[in-house]
Amino acid sequence: MSIEKFIAYLKTIENIEEHDIIRIRKSFKYKICKKKEILISNNQICDKVFFITKGILRAYSIDEKGIEKTRVISVENEFCGNWASFHNLSTNNEFIQSLELSEVVYVDHKDFYQLVNSSQALNKIYTKILEKFQVYHVKRFEFISNLSLQERLQKIDLYFPNLQNRISNKVLASFLHATPEHCSSAKKKVVKLLTAMIAFINQDLIMEMLTLF
């Protein structure tokens, strides 16, 4: 069951007492999300935070030109939400969307802060999760700011392993902060470069083998 997977994950971060586990079971709810289902809209406060036990979620916005920009993509054993909106119950300009048939557990603002404020262990877990999220966003900022689009495509598996095989080209483009057209063009250049590199390596291997005869 998803809630038990969630509790098992929390135990990998910090030891949890049985009374905290009981309260977690009461506070968190389970949901099956359809593919492309919008869980939180940009016209509502993000008053829930989601933990993924199966599937993949993203947080994205749409700019004034109608272009999607994906801020974060979360997979199994990760959280997804707009933490600023969730913490302050402030305006939210993002959508939270399921990209696959997914299973999540989620908690609302009131129950969440009752949990973390009444348990030292859960408060420590919350701090560590926020630290992990901060590291993610620093890495993400460096990825977008320091690399060209072609370099982002070449290194996405290094920065975000096993991600691009699970998302559409449109979502990939929005995650790379590019239009689908620019992303497709850059992809062709990367494939062409890799093909040339493979051909060059194979040619070197052939020449080396010929010297053995």
What does this structure look like?
The chain is α+β, with helices and mostly antiparallel strands. The protein has two domains: 2-146, Jelly Rolls, CATH 2.60.120; 148-213. 54% of the residues lie in helices and 19% in strands. It has eight helices and eight strands. It has helices spanning 2-13, 18-27, 83-88, 109-118, 120-146, 149-159, 169-175, 180-210; strands at residues 29-33, 38-40, 48-54, 57-62, 68-74, 79-80, 95-98, 102-108. The strands form two sheets. It has a four-stranded antiparallel sheet. The chain has a four-stranded antiparallel sheet with strand order 2-7-4-5. Strand 4 and strand 5 (68-74) form a beta hairpin. Helix 6 packs across helix 8 and helix 7 (169-175) crosses helix 8 (180-210). It is elongated. The N and C termini lie far apart (62 Å).
Q: How much helical structure, as a percent, in the residues?
A: 40-55%
Distance between the termini: 62 Å
CATH class of the largest domain: Mainly Beta
| Order of secondary-structure elements | HHEEEEEEHEEHHHHH
**Overall tally of domains:** 2
User: Unreliable stretches, pLDDT < 50, 5 or more residues?
Assistant: 204-213
Strand order of the largest sheet: 1-8-3-6
Strand residue content: 15-25%
